[in-house]
Amino acid sequence: MSSSPEFQTSQALQEAIALNVRNALAEDIGTGDITAGLIPASAIASARVISREDAVICGRDWVDEVFQQVDRRIDVEWLVSDGEQVNADKTLFNLHGPARSLLTAERCALNFLQLLSGTATTCRHYADLVEGTGVQLLDTRKTIPGLRLAQKYAVTCGGCHNHRIGLYDAFLIKENHIAACGGIAQAIDAARQQAPGKPVEVEVESLTELEQALAGSADTIMLDNFTLPDLRQAVTLAAGRAKLEASGGVTETTLRAIAETGVDYISIGVLTKDCRAVDLSMRITG
User: Fold this and answer.
1) Catalytic machinery residues
2) How far apart are CA 127 and CA 121, in angstroms?
3) What is the edge-to-edge ordering of all strands in the sheet holding 44-51?
4) DSSP state letter for 29
5) Buried-exposed string 124-161: b where 16+ CB fall within 10 A, e elsewhere
6) Are 158 and 56 contacting, i.e. CB atoms less than 8 angstroms apart?
7) Global pTM?
8) What angle (nearest 5°) sits at the alpha carbon of residue 227, between those of residues 224 and 231?
9) C or N: which end of the chain has fewer Cβ atoms within 10 Å?
10) Which residues lie closer than 8 Å to 113 by C-beta, 6 or more apart?
């Protein structure tokens, strides 16, 4: 249920970065950048990219990949690291290379950087709200299509944690799964038989269902829209027999109180689905 260095540097992530960039460049450049074609092919330029607002930076590998795929002659000099908090007007990186290529690559590079930095900045804000409670804030599958691994990486840069990556790496048994399987115990047993070793999480809507999930030895139990008193009682009932995850109705104003009930995790869709892109700008300097 938590992020790891292995995920952040995994081969799967590197392959996703290359694919993300190829797709983005294809939709932007199409048959060719006709405006950049106005610039002499021999022209060489330098540029810098700045953040126009305070932000947590994320997306260096995507930026590097954009410039490499457009023109390997472009040199990128980074002045910040992923996960670093910067203030407005901070120069993030410098560029040097063919002027045409710098301008062709500009928008795709900034699109990745501003979106992923926006995700990381949102996550840092929420992580700060629960600092000192010991709870881990988890993302969800509510991500931008095609950018699942990118946004989940950004979540870790912002100080939050990853839930399952997709439908394949962990069970999350919800109401309809339970109904189709014939009950909580039956659903858990089926999961153990189908994929031994995969984490099994069960969503429950009452303390009675919580007791059934505990009896079935679920690894993690999602407490859906529980009140604060019921969350506290759930922690007492579980007594460490399963990890507890609060979900549903979580806002900035309720987050701290939920964290203080003693649950292990809180999952929040807003970490990835409602983020605002950071305002960035590229300026030619010579």
Assistant:
1) 107, 142, 174, 203, 224
2) 10
3) 75-78, 90-98, 44-51, 280-284
4) H
5) bebbeebeebebbbbbbeebeeebbbbbbbbbbbbbbb
6) yes
7) 0.93
8) 75
9) C
10) 49, 57, 58, 59, 60, 62, 63, 92, 278, 280
Contact 117, 92 (CB under 8 A): no
From residue 194, give the alpha-carbon distance in Å to each of 198, 199, 217, 249. 9, 12, 16, 32
Phi, psi of 96 (to 5 degrees): -150, 130
Is-contact 246 130, C-beta < 8 A? no
Query: Bridge partners of 152?
Result: none
Please report, for residues 74, 77, 269, the alpha-carbon distance to residue 64 in angstroms, rounded to integers and kept in the order given.
9, 10, 29
Cβ 66 vs Cβ 49: under 8 Å: no
The rounded distance, in Å, linking the Cα atoms of 262 and 46 is 52
242-246, long-range: CB < 8 A, 24+ apart:
242/213, 242/214, 242/217, 242/218, 243/1, 243/219, 244/220, 245/1, 245/138, 245/201, 245/220, 245/221, 246/222
Q: How many CB atoms lie within 10 A of CB 62?
A: 24
Q: pLDDT tens string for the chain (286 positions)?
A: 444 444 555 888 999 999 999 999 999 999 999 999 999 999 999 999 999 999 999 999 999 999 999 999 999 999 999 999 999 999 999 999 999 999 999 999 999 999 999 999 999 999 999 999 999 999 999 999 999 999 999 999 999 999 999 999 999 999 999 999 999 999 999 999 999 999 999 999 999 999 999 999 999 999 999 999 999 999 999 999 999 999 998 999 999 999 999 999 999 999 999 889 999 999 999 7
Rounded to an integer, what distance in angstroms lies between the CA atom of residue 167 and that of residue 143? 13
Structure tokens that stand for 86 in this block:
């910067």
